[in-house]
Recover the amino acids of this structure.
């Protein structure tokens, strides 16, 4: 027993030692398929795969279908195409039990190998639903018209060209509940025509199929150059689905693709004199494609239309992209358009013999009722006009998003949206208008009872610019109008007017506006918040930088309160006005540069001005001019006339009329460089309060320079003590620079002493 154990131990030791010194095992060769014979066949066809490293057994897949091999060796695998095999090209995957995978392809269908003149008969014999593989090389059928009637025709992997020129073409026909297609073919002929039709007939089918089911035409990896492509103009559509995939189609005439339910372009270049694409009863998608029309590019869908990573261009014409919806019949369908990461461009060529094409150069993008989304498009441009519009009633899911696009137009860019609930957003866009015309306009107009936002856009060029937000209805509540972070520069010509306009409670903040060219004295700036249809609420105008050549106007009506703070207003050649009605106005911490009148307020409400800096220029500057306020509070403001001292201009002017009762509280303000301190006209009204503890820092020597009071059937009672009156050190001298005019039953009581001399 001990000997047997020792012997076993020795054997184990020897085996172990031998193992450590043995050469490495040869690696298992990777499985490879070199040839598939035949490459195509119908179910029941015996197929042999020749290769290497295939092992002796394993798993064989035809598409997603596992197939039993009839013979299997390291060099070949044989199988029979099962009856349930899916048609057309299928992946063949060989997975030997020893590991790895070899791949090839097999075409399930008919293999045509006859003479070119036999092709039509072969397709007719194959019958509806057949899949046919063509041989490699050139199939010459000059002048013939090949009818592909509910058949799917494929070119060979080694390349197939169908030569039908001169004058020949292909008719792709489908009947009700039928399908047809062309794939992997280079086609040379006059036309490719889509002809929906009844079984074995070339008679056009009705527009709407008479039976349930869909018709389907697919072009894939097709290369075609000819005269026309698609559905003949004016013929019945009749196609349920139409797809053009990974293809190149260039025609000298019209390219018209019309489907009922679905239209798809993917990875395709399509060009013609006029190009029209439509999903008349459903959806359309254009992805990674280029669509070029010389005169027309018209893309439409009833319901949803998506354009992603594509180019739509008219060389001398217009581009229209619309989800039209259905408005007048039941059921109502809302249109939804989305254009993303694309180029949409409508160009007008240079005039021919001095005559421009007046019908060219317009790009229109729109949707009815549903949603419109333009996101991060590289360029949306037109030589004449870009129009973006969401119209119709909308529903709870309706919205507008125009975000991160580059717009450019020779004349106008307009974005208009209307929706019951919103939200509507135009933000982060770059907009250039008027490159070819001074009569240009950049316009954003949003109507919604939800939130309307125009933010972080850069708008520049010639002409005018308007940003407008307003309600859609006259009842209930409305969300805010937000105009923020925009940069608007209109200096290159035209009027140069810029409007920031809201008919909703508004938030107008952090905008930069340059209206007009100062050297040409043109350009007005308007900031307006007037929620007339939904009165009440607040307006906030804050941290804006607004420069204008000929005027700045702030308008606030139908509000409870307007807050204007931390803005810079510059209109060195003209005036700035504030137009308000019965509300509370707070004007604080602003810097204003202007000339006569600097700040003109019309109001029956309450105004507070505090900590503002006013810089004036011109021959007749006014510090502030007020009209019939209920109460004015002015504290800690500075008013400075820049340049050479003037003997004209008034630091504080007021016109109080129409039975107003005005209370003044004007304290701790500094006025420098004016010709006169106070001009106050009171007619059939009452002015009371104080204008005191202010510094009027300019020389005074003539009557009226200190104060000029005109009272007609009015009462004026003012405390004007503790003011500094230029270089005057004696209160008695103040009366030398006063002028008081009283008419009718007026009463004027003004106290001046004591005065400041510091």
């Amino acid at each position: 027993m001990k000997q047997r154990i020792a012997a076993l131990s020795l054997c184990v030791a020897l085996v172990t030692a031998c193992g450590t010194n043995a050469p490495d095992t040869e690696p298992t060769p990777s499985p490879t398929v070199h040839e598939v014979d035949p490459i195509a066949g119908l179910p029941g066809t015996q197929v042999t795969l020749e290769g290497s490293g295939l092992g002796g057994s394993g798993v064989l897949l035809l598409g997603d279908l596992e197939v039993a091999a009839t013979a299997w060796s390291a060099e070949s695998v044989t199988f029979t195409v099962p009856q349930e095999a899916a048609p057309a090209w299928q992946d063949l995957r060989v997975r030997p039990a020893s590991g790895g995978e070899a791949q090839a392809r097999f075409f399930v269908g008919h293999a045509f190998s006859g003479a070119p003149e036999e092709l039509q008969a072969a397709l007719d014999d194959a019958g509806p639903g057949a899949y046919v593989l063509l041989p490699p090389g050139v199939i010459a059928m000059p002048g013939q018209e090949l009818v592909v009637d509910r058949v799917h025709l494929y070119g060979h992997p080694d390349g197939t060209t169908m030569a039908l020129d001169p004058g020949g073409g292909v008719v792709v026909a489908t009947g009700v509940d039928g399908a047809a297609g062309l794939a992997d073919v280079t086609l040379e002929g006059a036309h490719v025509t889509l002809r929906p039709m009844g079984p074995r007939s070339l008679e056009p089918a009705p527009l709407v199929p008479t039976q349930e089911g869909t018709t389907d035409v697919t072009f894939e990896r097709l290369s075609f150059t000819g005269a026309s492509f698609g559905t003949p103009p004016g013929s019945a559509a009749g196609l349920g689905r139409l797809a053009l995939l990974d293809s190149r189609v260039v025609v000298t005439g019209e390219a018209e693709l019309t489907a009922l339910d679905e239209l798809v372009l993917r990875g395709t270049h399509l060009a013609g004199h006029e190009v029209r694409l439509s999903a008349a009863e459903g959806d359309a998608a254009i992805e990674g494609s280029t669509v070029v029309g010389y005169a027309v590019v018209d893309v439409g869908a009833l319901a949803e239309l998506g354009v992603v990573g594509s180019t739509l261009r008219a060389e001398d014409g217009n581009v229209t992209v619309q989800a039209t919806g259905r408005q007048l019949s039941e059921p109502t369908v809302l249109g939804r358009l989305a254009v993303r990461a694309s180029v949409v461009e409508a160009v007008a060529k240079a005039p021919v013999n001095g005559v421009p094409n007046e019908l060219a150069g317009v790009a229109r993008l729109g949707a009815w009722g549903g949603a419109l989304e333009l996101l991060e498009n590289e360029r949306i441009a037109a030589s004449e006009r870009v129009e973006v519009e969401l119209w119709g009633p909308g529903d709870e899911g309706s919205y507008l998003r125009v975000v991160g696009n580059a717009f450019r137009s020779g004349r106008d860019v307009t974005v208009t949206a209307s929706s019951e609930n919103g939200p509507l957003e135009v933000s982060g866009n770059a907009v250039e208008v008027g490159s070819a015309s001074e009569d240009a306009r950049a316009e954003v107009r949003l109507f919604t009872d939800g939130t309307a936002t125009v933010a972080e856009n850069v708008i520049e060029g010639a002409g005018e610019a308007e940003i407008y937000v307003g309600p859609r209805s006259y009842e209930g509540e409305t969300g805010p109008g937000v105009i923020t972070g925009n940069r608007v520069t209109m200096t290159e010509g035209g009027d140069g007017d810029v409007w920031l306009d809201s008919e909703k409670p508004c938030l107008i903040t952090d905008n930069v506006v340059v209206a007009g060219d100062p050297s040409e004295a043109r350009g007005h700036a308007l900031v307006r918040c007037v929620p007339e249809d939904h009165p009440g609420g607040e307006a906030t105008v804050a941290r804006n930088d607004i420069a204008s050549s000929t005027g700045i106007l702030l308008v606030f009506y139908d509000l409870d309160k307007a807050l204007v703070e931390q803005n810079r207003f510059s209109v060195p050649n003209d005036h700035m006005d504030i137009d308000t009605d019965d509300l509370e106005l707070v004007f604080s911490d602003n810097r204003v540069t202007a000339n006569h009148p600097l700040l003109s307020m019309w109001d029956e409400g309450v105004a507070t001005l505090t900590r503002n800096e006013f810089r004036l220029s011109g021959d007749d500057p006014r510090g502030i001019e007020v009209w019939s306020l209920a109460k004015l509070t002015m504290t800690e403001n500075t008013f400075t006339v820049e340049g050479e001292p003037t003997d004209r201009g008034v630091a504080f002017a007021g016109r109080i009329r129409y039975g107003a009762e005005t209370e003044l509280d004007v304290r701790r303000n500094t006025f420098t460089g004016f010709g006169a301190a106070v001009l106050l006209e009171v007619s059939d009204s009452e002015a009371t309060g104080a204008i005191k503890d202010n510094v009027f820092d300019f020389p005074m020597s003539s009557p009226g320079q200190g104060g000029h009071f005109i009272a007609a059937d009015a009462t004026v009672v003012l405390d004007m003590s503790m003011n500094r009156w230029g270089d005057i050190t004696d209160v008695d001298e103040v009366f030398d620079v006063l002028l008081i005019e009283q008419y009718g039953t007026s009463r004027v009581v003004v106290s001046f002493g004591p005065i400041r001399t510091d």
